[in-house]
Design a protein that fits this description.
Layout: H1 2-50, E1 54-59, E2 61-62, E3 66-83, E4 89-94, E5 101-102, E6 107-112, H2 114-138, H3 148-172, E7 176-178, E8 183-188, E9 195-196, E10 207-222, E11 234-238, E12 247-258, E13 264-272, E14 283-291, E15 297-300, E16 312-317, E17 320-325, E18 327-331, E19 335-340, E20 347-349, E21 363-366, E22 391-393
Parallel strand pairs: 1-21
Antiparallel strand pairs: 1-20, 2-15, 3-10, 3-14, 3-22, 4-6, 4-9, 5-8, 6-7, 8-10, 10-13, 11-12, 11-14, 12-13, 15-19, 16-17, 18-19
Helix pairs in contact: 2-3
């Protein structure tokens, strides 16, 4: 009976060994490829860690010698004035209307002055009496009949009355309202029978006269561009009514001091308008081509190193990282002007990572702009758009 028991036990252990061998083989078949892959991945990671990181770089560009500055302008006539009545009365007639060109001295309106005429008549009568009295006293030949003082007083009275008459006659001459200079009538506030007086209060003027053969464009130039504004500097005058057309202008004067509230320099630009195409009071823009007083360098805004107390950029020199402190100038949004610290041509790291260290070896990759997404083309901006903000245009990075 013992032999069957031994045989059964041997078979049991044999089955156990076979099962263990099968499971061991299956384990090895699944584990070894995975182990090899992890080993290869770790080796590749070690190699990548030991290799120099790749950074995207772009070259800093030297700013151009000139910059374009476009600003809104307040357009006025070369000469303009309000014409007021100089005598009290009523409008008898008028002969000039809006849009009419007039010559210097041309009669614009005539005023009837009944009260002034009455004053002149009374003054002349008083003058006649004073003249008669003086002549009577001067004709007395009897010595001692009149004193020298009485004769002088009569003479002074006669002179005063004569001066009063001359003054009233001079005032009567203003019954004819004339143009002070050649120009065009832009406002008329008179009608036949209207009551007028010699007041110059706002709104009491009879006409407004403007000279439009030249226009004056007043521009508020920001402080950082003010040093480049000089008399004689040429400028482009732009109006929405003539898209794509440029009218030549010239700086004739500037205020010489900045406005304390806006920190801007009032600048006057003269624009010839012999053909009368431009209208005073219309919206316009003036485009300056300003020489740079201190040419700088233009860099992308995302080249700045984030954080820290100093403004820095990361440059690549001989394959190694070098941090350079800069002095920023004007901010153009996507671009930044550098006043000091760069000369132009340096390779700048875009979006520098925080783990880059001074002197670290890196590989460089030139920046390539992202392709524009497919779709309909964007609408073109309106030329000389009145709602467009003032623009300063540096050289754009390519």
């Amino acid at each position: 009976m013992s032999e069957p028991t031994t045989s059964s036990s041997s078979r049991f252990w044999l089955i156990i060994l076979i099962v263990l061998a099968v499971f061991g083989g299956l384990f090895l078949l699944g584990y070894m490829p995975r182990h090899n892959r992890e080993k290869a991945r770790d080796s590749e990671a070690s190699q990548n860690a030991a290799a120099a990181p790749t950074v995207t770089v772009v070259a800093a560009q030297a700013a151009p010698d000139t910059t374009t500055l476009t600003l809104p302008a307040d357009t006025r006539s070369n000469r303009e004035t309000f014409v007021f009545a100089r005598a009290n009365g009523y409008i008898k007639s008028w002969s000039a209307d809006i849009g009419q060109k007039v010559k210097a001295g041309q009669v614009l309106a005539e005023v009837t002055t009944p009260e002034l005429d009455q004053q002149i008549a009374e003054a002349r009568a008083t003058l006649g009496l004073a003249r008669t009295s003086y002549n009577r006293l001067a004709g007395i030949g009897l010595p001692g009949a009149i004193s020298k003082q009485e004769l002088d007083a009569a003479q002074a009275q006669y002179a005063a009355q004569r001066a009063g008459v001359q003054q009233l006659l001079a005032q009567q001459a203003f019954r004819r309202v004339t143009a002070p200079f050649s120009g065009i009538v832009t406002q008329r506030n008179v009608e036949v029978g209207s009551l007028v007086n010699s007041s110059n209060t706002p709104g009491s003027h009879l006409y407004k006269l403007e000279q439009t053969d030249k226009l004056r464009a007043y521009v508020q130039v920001p402080q950082n561009f003010a040093p480049a504004i000089k008399p004689g500097l040429t400028a482009d005058f732009l109006v929405p009514e003539f898209p794509g057309r440029v009218f030549a202008g010239r700086v004739v004067r500037e205020a010489g001091a900045l406005d304390a509230n806006t920190r801007t320099l009032l600048t006057e630009v003269e624009v010839p308008n012999a053909r009368g195409e431009l209208r005073p009071g219309s919206y316009a823009q003036v485009r300056f081509h300003l020489p740079r007083t201190s040419p700088g360098v233009l860099i992308p805004a995302n080249a700045l190193v984030p954080g820290g107390t100093d403004v820095r950029v990361a440059t690549v020199q001989d394959g190694k990282v070098h941090y350079q402190t800069i002095t920023p100038g004007r901010d153009f949004g996507s671009q930044l002007e550098v006043a000091q610290g760069l000369k132009g041509g340096e390779l700048l790291v875009l979006n520098p990572a925080e783990n880059l260290t001074e002197g670290q070896a890196v590989q460089t990759r030139a920046y390539k702009p992202a392709p524009k997404p497919a779709g309909p083309p964007p609408a073109k901006p309106r030329l000389n758009d009145p709602d467009a903000p003032r623009v300063s245009s540096p050289a754009l990075l390519k």
